[in-house]
Write a structure and sequence with these properties.
The protein has 199 residues and is mainly α. The protein contains 11 helices and no strands.
Length: 199
């Protein structure tokens, strides 16, 4: 590490990746607006100048945290949907893995994209846009798999794919609220079973 880098306030043994993971945890627990600079820097083990030197701003730090979350916790969505032999099996697998992941987390229960998306001031408009785009991406994943199911013959041709995709998206993101409110795993699994039964 150069002297110039140290002068900007970054600790000598600054681990950027570890700090980003810590920041993701803070955003996950408190949301974007609730994650104050003091909470972030305390968790990351750095001072404000180091945060700005490494990430540029709180907003840019959050954007990187979203990308980290999607890579670490969200990639199973595409895998579950694309590798299944039919649409219903893929959607079932996606929901099963979602519930399993949500209840396995001792600190974080629910979806980062939902829990950090509380409305905020105009200054956070870019943050809200990124979160909205990520939620829309999930809807498009459902829609794409259902369209494939129609092409391959395991989804009826008269099914309104867009409506069904939005229905599954609503259930998918709604699970976070149920889990955060303390609804037990057995009940949530029952809810998912009812949701998938429409296919």
């Amino acid at each position: 590490m150069t002297k110039a880098t140290a002068t900007r306030g970054r600790p000598r043994f600054f681990d950027r990746d570890a700090a980003l993971h810590k920041a993701m945890d803070v955003f996950w627990l408190y949301g974007y607006e609730g994650a104050s600079l003091s909470l972030l820097t305390a968790s990351m083990g750095i001072k404000p100048p180091s945060l700005y030197a490494a990430f540029g701003s709180k907003e840019k730090l959050f954007m990187e945290a979203v990308e980290l979350y999607v890579r670490k916790y969200g990639s199973y969505r595409e895998i579950a949907l694309t590798q299944a032999s039919d649409a219903k099996s893929g959607i079932t697998e996606l929901f099963e893995r979602t519930v399993e992941q949500f209840y396995a987390e001792h600190i974080h229960k629910g979806c980062f994209v939902v829990l950090t998306a509380l409305s905020g001031p105009q200054e956070s408009a870019d943050v809200q846009r990124v979160l909205s785009e990520e939620r829309r991406r999930t809807a498009l994943l459902f829609e794409s798999r259902l369209l494939r199911g129609q092409a391959e013959g395991d989804v009826a041709q008269d099914v309104n794919v867009r409506v069904l995709a939005e229905y599954f998206t609503t259930i998918f993101f709604g699970l976070t609220v149920q889990i955060r409110d303390g609804v037990d795993e057995e009940t949530v699994r029952g809810l998912v079973k009812v949701a998938i039964s429409v296919m």
